[in-house]
């Protein structure tokens, strides 16, 4: 164990496979010279940047003895990207695997002990990346995004038609060299049909009060980011994580990723696995339930990464 005062934080940058530069932080605990430590990679939720509470989780994991890597996803914060503010789940999964490669090259990292942690949309990224990348040896996610198709199926048919037409029109605009269309992540009145990505009042209130404090967070993403969200299916990969250990933390009052659906997908995963309920809403793991959610993940990594 290391104390908070013994944690060394440094800025890093690494290249994804296509040359995009991703920027983030490394947290290192104080350990004896020559020690090889396990590493935990972090991925935040939809549109979030590293300053949005990742530091809190990184601190908890580093104090438990882990090297921790967190970064801004492509197109967000300080990271590069061909299309700014575009969130493409396939790129995010690929970039996470490139982050694993970068982490394995760092001095002091035990390359046989690599943990993946993700929150919300980042939970889906961590699940799919771990399913595809056997170098990841332990996974912990909270309130994870699991199925864009399920979300799409709950949209009324008329709204589906309107969205499909909007997506098609925007693709034509891009093909003819016009600027990409930008939409808000959250809006004040999602119940009135205002177009956004996280269409709940809770999402708006939390984002404006808490997420907006991060200097590099913007309440903007491309319209295609919403379109691509509906094709993101981490649930289809969750069974491929076993026999590596999987922890899923679900929030009992979650209106974005209802716990019943999360539990149903979790049941399809192989052993070893554990499901933890926490008594809060989707954003509680960053606030009232932080100690429970971070503690569950820390203990899972300690148990399985040593």
Report on the structure:
By secondary structure, this protein is α/β, with parallel strands linked by helices. Helices cover 34% and strands 20% of the residues. It contains nine helices and ten strands. Strands 1-2-4-3-5-6-9-10 form an eight-stranded mixed sheet, sandwiched between helices. A two-stranded antiparallel sheet has the order 7-8. Helix 1 (54-63) links the parallel strand 3 (37-43) and strand 4.
Quick take:
The chain has helices at residues 54-63, 89-104, 121-132, 148-153, 157-175, 201-209, 223-229, 259-266, 290-305, and strands at residues 8-15, 21-28, 37-43, 67-71, 109-119, 138-142, 182-183, 221-222, 246-251, 273-278. With 306 residues, the protein is α/β, with parallel strands linked by helices. The longest helix is centred in the middle third of the chain and has 19 residues, at 157-175.
Features:
9 helices; single chain; 306 residues; 10 strands; globular
């Amino acid at each position: 164990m290391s104390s908070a005062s013994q944690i060394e934080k440094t800025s890093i940058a690494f290249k994804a496979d296509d040359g995009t530069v991703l920027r983030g932080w490394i947290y290192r605990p104080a350990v004896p010279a020559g020690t090889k430590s396990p590493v935990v990679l972090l991925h935040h939720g939809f549109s979030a940047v590293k300053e949005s509470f990742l530091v809190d989780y990184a601190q908890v994991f580093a104090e438990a003895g882990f090297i921790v890597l967190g970064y801004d996803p492509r197109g967000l914060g300080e990271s590069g990207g061909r299309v700014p503010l575009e969130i493409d789940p396939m790129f995010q999964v690929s970039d996470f695997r490139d982050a694993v490669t970068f982490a394995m090259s760092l001095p002091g990292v035990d390359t046989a002990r690599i943990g993946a942690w993700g929150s919300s949309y980042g939970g889906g990224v961590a699940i799919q990346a771990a399913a595809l990348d056997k170098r990841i040896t332990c996974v912990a996610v909270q309130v994870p995004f699991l199925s864009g198709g399920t979300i799409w199926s709950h949209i009324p048919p008329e709204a589906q038609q309107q969205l499909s037409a909007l997506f098609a029109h925007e693709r034509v605009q891009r093909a003819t060299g016009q600027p990409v269309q930008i939409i808000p992540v959250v809006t004040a009145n999602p119940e009135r049909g205002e177009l956004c990505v996280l269409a709940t009042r809770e999402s708006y209130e939390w984002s404006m009060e808490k997420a907006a404090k991060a200097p590099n967070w913007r309440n903007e993403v491309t319209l295609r980011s919403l379109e691509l969200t509906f094709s993101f299916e981490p649930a289809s990969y969750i069974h491929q994580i076993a026999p590596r250990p999987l922890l899923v933390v679900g929030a009992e009052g979650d209106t974005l990723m209802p716990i019943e659906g999360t539990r149903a997908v979790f049941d399809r995963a192989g052993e070893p696995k554990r499901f933890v309920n926490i008594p809060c809403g989707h954003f509680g793991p960053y606030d009232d339930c932080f100690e429970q959610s971070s503690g569950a993940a820390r203990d899972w990594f300690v148990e399985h990464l040593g």
